[in-house]
Automatic annotation (TrEMBL):
SUPFAM superfamilies: P-loop containing nucleoside triphosphate hydrolases. Keywords: ATP-binding, Nucleotide-binding. Residues 144-278, 396-535 form the AAA+ ATPase domain. This is AAA+ ATPase domain-containing protein. GO terms for molecular function: ATP binding; ATP hydrolysis activity. One of its GO terms (cellular component) is cytoplasm. InterPro entries: AAA+_ATPase (IPR003593), AAA_ATPase_domain (IPR050168), ATPase_AAA_core (IPR003959), P-loop_NTPase (IPR027417). It comes from Meganyctiphanes norvegica (Northern krill).
């Protein structure tokens, strides 16, 4: 604790050339130019007298500020005079400087986290450490950059990494865009200038600009020109001394909106992108979280949790841990708590997708074993052996085209397969792509693929693909231009020019003959799968599942024979109608002869229902599917 010093008004006063004050509080504005001007005016106007180690208490912005006089410079014939007991007065020419208390800075640092507390992103953190080491060592020869841009989706750990940076540097200044943005012209720019001046005085120093995409977008946007220009000049450094020992680190959720000049060499030239955590990263995140709460979870159980959480970022896993702690109550967190929490916490990037905890499973889908096995094989090879494909320079089987009559279970098979591998499914329809403004459709499609890349591994399911990339020439010239641009954009995505790692693009259609031939040519899709009408075996499996043998007996075999040409959806409707008709008959018979049902009544029910539920798939449509399959499918027909 510092003791207050009493000064007699009769003491001899000397003129102070420079006064150095140390702040005993953690207010960010202490070293700002505005506060220095206010402090100097306050000292001169009130004719305050100074002694070394004395305390000065003032109010600024309704806050109590305590300052300690750490050093006083003055002119004296004897340079070695002791001035501990001398009294000084400030005048308008006196230079006043304010710095933070180093003890307070170190106490604050002890509460912060380090890079060792962060799971995953090992390569990115090592790269960041290297740049910080240059800043701390203040070595001009090892200087590699003036600025670093850390980008990534919300919850990936940008803020956490920035907090860890403050553990390794003594001087760290954080800029929140809410604090510096002002509605008054020029005030935002002045605040930024004050912060850079303060950083230069405290060099080596790290300046963190949080959410820089919110602070300064492109200069073509209204209101951003002066802010961006100011930041460009400050980062360039008007003279060499300004940029020495000052490292600028900025975070952004949408780096594409930044002005291009901010990212040229010498400014934010080093990019660190925090992508969706890999399995290794998620294992480290789970491991560190579980160790922090002293959970009782084995390594094998953590591996299982990792396989159940594709697409989860650090923020999502933190939410899972909080939910697991609530479920465990006062007991240690175990595997069952975490598994239940995973089922209830959906990744933030999957909010617009079907839940990966869908209740539908492949066992619920009767028949189509060949198709189900092929889709499962494509998913499994890509997810488990993707590095082998990369090593061989081969594209993994991630693009599938499913075609067949409506009601045969194309969407259900994809949903069930995705649920088995814990993948989110983003459904894409014509209405979610096409917009009424010029260029809006392509922008919507780009956003869909961007969201999928951030949530990978996942499934992009294009429903009614023929409505999006139809080869038909319908509508006016404007609609043709839009469809042509959509087709060209999809070609780029399907050709693999843009990297879509671990994104399964599945397109389904009931009219493959209407698809644009250039979009569906071999090479743009890896597999072409015909999901046609169910076979006799498939119909038998479905009917035995929905109709009990005790009631219907041999009539099930009869139904299998007479239901050829029905789709799966029509068969399910047929079974429901049969059950309803049977219940009505049983209610009528119970009033007269009891519950006995003979074969004649069963046959009457079947004939009546078959007249009401008729198949809608024409032979002409089946011929088109067969012709398309012979052209595109690797094994002809399925």
């Amino acid at each position: 604790m510092y003791k207050e010093t009493e000064i007699s008004t009769k003491s001899r006063r000397l003129f102070a050339l420079e006064v150095y004050l140390t702040s005993l509080c953690n207010e960010n504005f202490i070293e700002s130019t505005g506060f220095i001007h206010y402090l100097k005016k306050y000292i001169v106007d009130h004719e305050i007298l100074f002694k070394k180690d004395m305390l000065l208490n003032i109010q600024y912005l309704s806050r109590d500020i305590t300052l300690k006089v750490s050093k006083i410079n003055f002119h004296h014939p004897n340079d070695f005079v002791e001035y501990d007991d001398l009294v000084f007065q400030c005048f308008s020419s006196t230079i006043i400087s304010v710095l933070f208390d180093s003890k307070q800075e170190s106490n604050k640092k002890k509460k912060e986290i380090s890079f060792d507390d962060i799971g995953g992103y090992g390569q990115e953190i090592r790269k960041l450490k290297k740049e910080i080491q240059w800043c701390v060592s203040f070595d001009k020869n090892s200087k590699s950059t003036n600025g670093i841009l850390i980008s990534g989706m919300s919850g990936c750990g940008k803020s956490l990494i920035c907090e860890a940076i403050s553990f390794y540097v003594q001087n760290f200044i954080r800029i929140e865009h809410e604090e510096v943005k002002s509605r008054f012209i020029g005030e935002t720019e002045n605040k930024i200038k004050d912060i850079f001046e303060k950083a230069t005085k405290r060099a080596p120093c790290v300046i963190l600009i949080d959410d820089i995409d919110q602070l300064c977008g492109g200069r073509n946007k209204s209101g951003n020109t002066s802010v961006v220009t100011t930041l460009l000049h400050l980062m360039d450094g008007v003279d060499a001394a300004v940029s020495e020992g000052v490292l600028v680190i900025a975070t952004a959720k949408e780096p594409q909106v930044l002005d291009d000049a901010l990212r040229r060499p010498g400014r934010l030239s080093t990019d660190i992108t925090l992508c969706t955590p890999t399995e290794v990263d998620r294992y480290e995140i789970f491991d560190k979280f579980i160790a922090r709460v002293n959970g009782s979870v084995t390594k094998e159980e953590i591996t299982t949790l990792v396989s159940m959480s594709p697409g989860y970022v650090g923020g999502d896993i933190y939410s899972v841990m909080v939910e697991a702690i609530n479920l465990a109550e006062e007991n240690p967190v175990n595997f069952l708590n975490l598994k239940s929490a995973l089922a209830s916490i959906k990744p933030r990037r999957h909010f617009d997708s079907h839940s990966n905890s869908s209740k539908i499973s492949l066992d619920d889908i009767c028949g189509y074993e060949d198709v189900k096995n092929k889709i499962q094989e494509a998913f499994q090879l890509t997810l488990e052996h993707g590095d082998v494909f990369d090593h061989c320079g081969i594209s993994p089987p991630t693009r599938l085209l499913l075609f067949g009559p409506p009601g045969c279970g194309k969407s259900s098979i994809v949903m069930a397969t995705a649920a088995k591998f814990h993948l989110a499914v983003f459904t894409v329809k014509r209405s979610s792509v096409f917009g009424k403004y010029f260029g809006e459709s392509e922008q919507n499609l780009s956003k869909i693929f961007k969201s999928a890349r951030e949530a990978a591994p996942c499934v992009l399911l294009f429903e009614n693909f023929d409505g999006l990339v139809s080869g038909r020439k319908v509508g006016g010239k404007g609609s043709l231009d839009v469809e042509e641009r959509i087709i060209n954009h999809l070609k780029v995505q399907l050709d693999g020019i843009l990297k879509n790692d671990r994104i399964f693009i599945v397109a389904e259609t009931t009219r493959p003959d209407l698809l644009d031939k250039d979009v569906i040519r071999p090479g743009r899709f890896h597999e072409y799968l015909l999901i046609s009408l169910p076979t006799e075996k498939d119909r038998m499996i479905l009917l035995r599942k929905h109709l009990t043998t005790e009631t219907w007996g041999n009539s099930i075999d009869k139904l299998v024979n007479i239901s050829a040409g029905y789709t799966m959806a029509e068969l399910v409707q047929l079974c429901n109608e049969l059950q309803v008709s049977l219940e009505e008959k049983l209610m009528y018979l119970s009033e007269e002869n009891g519950n006995s049902v003979d074969i004649c009544i069963i046959n009457d029910i079947i004939e009546e229902v078959m007249d009401n539920v008729v198949p809608n798939t024409s032979q002409r449509m089946l011929t088109k599917f067969s012709t398309f399959a012979k052209t595109y499918c690797s094994d002809g027909l399925l």
